[in-house]
Each structure stands twice: as C-alpha cells, then as structure tokens.
Amino acid sequence: MKVAVIGGGAAGFFAAIQAKENHSSSSVTIFEKSQKLLAKVKVSGGGRCNVTNGTDSVSELAKGYPRGEKQLKRAFSIFNNRDTQAWFEKRGVKLYTQPDNRVFPSSNDSQTIIDCLIHETKRLGIQIRTGVGVSRIEPTGNCIRLHLSENESQEFDKVVIATGGSPKRSGFDWLETLGHEIVEPVPSLFTFNMPNESITELMGVVADNALVNIQGTKLKAQGPLLITHWGMSGPAVLKLSAFGARTLSEMSYQFKVQVNWIGEPNYDKAADTLKESLEANPNKQVSNVKPFNLPDRLWQFLLQRSEIPETKKANELGKKQLNKLVNTLTNDEYSVSGKTTFKEEFVTCGGVSLSSVNFNTMESRVIPNLYFAGEVLDIDGITGGYNFQAAWTTGFIAGKLS
Predict the structure, then answer these.
(1) What is the reported pTM?
(2) Which of 141, 172, 192, 249 has a CB 3.0–4.6 Å from the CB of 182, allowing a cystine?
(3) Do 158 and 1 meet the contact criterion of CB atoms below 8 Å apart?
(4) Where are the domains of the chain?
C-alpha cells in the first residue's frame, strides 16, 4: 500500500508514523512544500514546545476548543493528552507539567520533540520530501493521484492531508473543488491593540487573575493578563480572542474591553475587602496599601485613573473616591483598535468543515481513502497545548487509515 501525507508539521508527522506502525509493509511519504519541517513545533512556547495540556479530565480538555469540542471529546476516547505524554516518554522524551497545566519537554527545548519525531520517521523508513507541494488531488478509481510540483504526479492508495490552517480562503480552494465544505478562515489567538490607551506604558506588567469581557457581547475569560507595548495579551486575552474569533472579526477588531483587575465579580465584596484593608492601615499612604496583591506599577496606575493622589492617606479617602476606585478595579474600560497575531504561530478558526469528515476515522465523507488531520480542519484550541493535542489526536486516528 502506498500512503502520502501532505504537510510536514505535527499532525502530518504523527499521521505518517501511525500509518507506518499500523501498516508496516506500506510505503509512506511525507510531502512538505517548504524546506522547513515541524516549523510550528520549533517556535511554539517560545521555543520550548508546549506539547499538550495536563488536565486530568477529557471533558475539561475538550472545553479548550472553541471549535471542535464535541467531535474531539469523542476522538479523545481513542487518543488523548495522557496518551500523548506516554507516547513521547516511551520514546525517551521526559516531560514535566507546570502549575498552569502546560506540558513541556524537561529539556525546555522544542528541538527535543523535533528530534524524536524525525528519529521515528527514520527508524520506520518513512520518506520525507521537502520543497514538494501538491497543486491538485485527483481521485482515480480506488486510488488518489497527487499532482506535485514540477509537473510530477503519483498515485497513492491512501492520502492524509495535514497542511495546517490558511489565513485566506483561497488556501482551501483545492479542497473545496473536491466537494468539501469550507468554513471561512479568520484569525484566532491574537492580542488586543490599544494605540490610544496610556496603559501601554506599563508594558511587562501582569495581573495574575483578571476577568475580561467584550462590551456588548457575552464573551468573557479569566486568567493572567499581560500588558504589552501595543495593548493587552496573556492567557485571558488569548482565550477571549479564540472564543470570540468570529464575533471580533465581524466587529473589525474595533471594540471596548472591560477589565476586572482583581477577578472578583462581586462589587460589594470587592468594596468590603478594600475598606477593611484601608481601615487596618489608616495612616499609610493609599499607594502602599495593596489589598488585592496587584503589581506596584498597576496599583499606582489604577489610583491615578481613579483620580486619587498616591500621597493620600488611607483614612482620608472619601466615599466618592472609594466607589470610584472599586469601579476602576472591577469595571475598567479600554478601547481596542486592531489585533496582533503571531506570524510564526498563527492559528485560524475555519477550514474544512467538521461535517465533511468522519471523526471515528478522520476520513473524508466526500472522497474515499482521503483523510484529514490538524489545523486544516475547522478546529482550534486556546493557548496551553490544546492545538498540538488536536494535531496528535487527529493525526493518530487518521494514521490508522481505517
């Protein structure tokens, strides 16, 4: 049996390895149009590679996918995050889990993951051809003909498509012409640009547990928020951008974001905590009383924003000033104008529709013997190892070639 895998990323490598392990007598070839293999693995997690997420529950894991949750929950019964960790560790890659559940190689070097995957392809005798793209797929009876670069074409018994996401719909034209439904791609996992907000002066400051929501929508997320020189980032913002990918695209990335800096949704409770803290330190300057353990620079910025002088003593704060400060802490508002995406790690929502694929096998419902894996599908996850886990899971199932 001749097997082709189109795409030399995480999903493609995993599918090729599984295909060869499941069908040892078959010939398996990976086609990668660029000269780089596993490019996203290399840059992910700041070069450390966030392999997967360490959550204990499959249903919790599935909640990390704004698109694909239902289908992946089923797929995770076949291969999930625990299986991923066992797979790499069995092949000599030691992993560790951070308190936030992100899983990394103990080496803290993505090259460890790349070396493991390439070693497996060599051990199994999988052929890898770089600089060879596929321009067209042509079903011919029970086979599939691939039209490759430089007027070359080859026939294969089974083909796995793992070409990743595309920022433009035209990147999916070759799959749409075969009859697959394409969901319009839009960016997911991006940061918020705030060109007219002075908070950018606090670049590098992190609020550990912010509650963030988009005004006029039901979109909200909680977690660490990072202030950058262009606006806001961090897990809370990235999660919001993933779950709100389509809505925020429709808003042309012009909207207002409301920030609860202390992660306490109850206004009265926040007010009581602040009052108690001020009453316990009556002669201290307000700038030195930090009831919510916020970073110094952020606390001073929020006092300024509430028009409270830093030198003011705690017992000098009037009711009006107190209310204004609580409102700033729990319901601060900023204007967003645009987004910043990570070019090397771009994630899109959209792609081949989930209804076009049988998730028990990852086989196309339109073309027999054609399979899909990874971000080419309308699946995307929040930050924290979710996108790689979707790649490992769909690649593993596609590689069964069943």
Answers:
(1) 0.93
(2) 172
(3) yes
(4) 2-186+344-398, 190-341
Q: How confident is the model at residue 290 (pLDDT cuts 50, 70, 90)?
A: confident
Q: 226 and 233 in contact (C-beta within 8 Å)?
A: yes
* pLDDT tens-digit map of 148-171: 987 899 999 999 999 999 989 999
| DSSP, res 54 | -
Phi, psi of 183 (to 5 degrees): -90, 125
Q: Shortest CA distance to 244 belongs to which of 187, 206, 291? A: 187
In this structure, are residues 159 and 371 in contact, taking their beta carbons and an 8 Å threshold? Answer: yes
Token pair listed for 132:
């060879």
Look at residue 338 and tell me whether its pLDDT is greater than 90: yes
Residue 286 near residue 310, CB atoms below 8 Å: yes
155: exposed, middle or buried (Cβ count in 10 Å: 0-12, 13-18, 19+): middle
Residue ranges of alpha helices (H) inside 190-266 are 235-243, 245-250
Distance of alpha carbon 203 from alpha carbon 276, whole angstroms: 31
The 10s digit of each residue's pLDDT in 54-100 is 999 999 999 999 999 999 999 999 999 999 999 999 999 999 999 99
Domain 2-186+344-398 has CATH 3.30.450.40: no
- Mean pLDDT value across residues 259-281: 94
Residue 157's nearest CA partner among 376, 371, 373 is 371
pLDDT of residue 226: 97
Phi, psi of 25 (to 5 degrees): -85, -5
pLDDT band at 174 (very low <50, low <70, confident <90, very high): very high
Distance of alpha carbon 285 from alpha carbon 31, whole angstroms: 65
What does the mean pLDDT of the chain come to? 96
In the DSSP assignment, the letter for residue 376 is G
Residue 348: pLDDT over 90: no
Parallel, antiparallel or unpaired: strands 370-372 and 158-161 = parallel
- Which runs of E-coded beta strand occur in 228-304? 231-233, 254-260
Determine the length of the chain.
402
How far lies 252's CA from each of 99, 244, 247, 337, in Å? Answer: 35, 12, 9, 9
Mean pLDDT of 354-380: 97
- Give CA–CA dist 151/137, Å, rounded: 13
Burial of 324: CB neighbours in 10 Å, binned 0-12, 13-18, 19+: middle
Q: Is 288 helix (H, G, I), strand (E, B) or coil?
A: helix
